[in-house]
Amino acid sequence: MKATSTQKKINLPIDQKKSSLRYYTKSILAVLVFMIGSSLIHAQNSCKSKLQVEKNRNSRSISSEGTQYRLLISNETSNQASFNLKAIDINKNCTNNDGSSTSNNVNLNFFFTDVDSNPISDIVLNSGETKSFLVKLTIPSGTPYNRWNCTEIAATSNDCSNYSITTILHTLVSDPNQE
């Protein structure tokens, strides 16, 4: 006698097939949502940093000798972070501290240094690290006195696309005859 194997095809009613398909679709969708959400949370955490002026002193006067702001940049992630530093003129899009019109605002010269006055354009931070750096300003010759400058300082991540941290500096060009 030959051993034979027979397979029975089970025909499920259409309602049960649709129900099973919905279950699997919902399960796959839930897994995808979880994976995407986890990736976004990880990406946000891997790009979390802070930029601020020391003691929140975002406003000061500048004389013919120039001035400087000390900024603090913090890496609040578990990875090393690298940033490119830029000074951006926002004279037309800011509010002067004394309420005067921004139409008379002036441009200043900006450059970045480390705390030992070595020129920098990038800064690298280890996980949890905070570093100080300086934004030094000078007045171009012929700049009128008693005028404001508004500049946004941006630290743009070299590691995370489209991620920048910013702070705004308000600087008044003081009249040396009134100092």
Short description:
Helices cover 18% and strands 37% of the residues. It is elongated.
Structure description:
Keywords: Membrane, Transmembrane, Transmembrane helix. With 179 residues, the protein is of the alpha+beta class. The chain has two domains: 14-45; 49-178, Immunoglobulin-like, CATH 2.60.40.10. Helix content is 18%, strand content 37%. It is built from one helix and nine strands; from the N terminus they run αβββββββββ. Strands 2-9-8-4-6 form a five-stranded mixed sheet, with no helix packed on it. It has a four-stranded antiparallel sheet with strand order 1-3-7-5, with no helix packed on it. β8 and β9 form a beta hairpin. The chain is elongated, with a radius of gyration of 29 Å.
Salient structural properties:
alpha+beta, Immunoglobulin-like, 179 residues, 2 domains, single chain, elongated, 18% helix, five-stranded mixed beta sheet, transmembrane helix
Output the helix-strand order: HEEEEEEEEE
So, CATH architecture of the largest domain? Sandwich
Q: Low-confidence runs (pLDDT<50, min 5 residues)?
A: 37-44
Question: Which homologous superfamily in CATH is the superfamily of the largest domain?
Answer: Immunoglobulins
Distance between the termini: 116 Å
Average pLDDT across residues? 87
Strand content: 35-45%
The helix-and-strand class reads alpha+beta
What percentage of residues falls in helices of 4 or more residues?
10-25%
Instruction: Compute the number of helices.
Output: 1
The level 1 CATH classification of the largest domain is: Mainly Beta
Rg, please? 29 Å
Q: Could you describe the largest sheet, including whether it forms a barrel?
A: 5 strands, mixed
What spatial form do the alpha-carbon principal axes imply? elongated
Q: How many distinct beta strands?
A: 9
Q: Count the domains.
A: 2
The largest beta-sheet arranges its strands as 2-9-8-4-6
Under CATH, the topology of the largest domain can be stated as: Immunoglobulin-like
Keywords: Membrane, Transmembrane, Transmembrane helix
Transmembrane segments: 21-41
Organism: Flavobacterium succinicans
Protein name: Fn3-like domain-containing protein
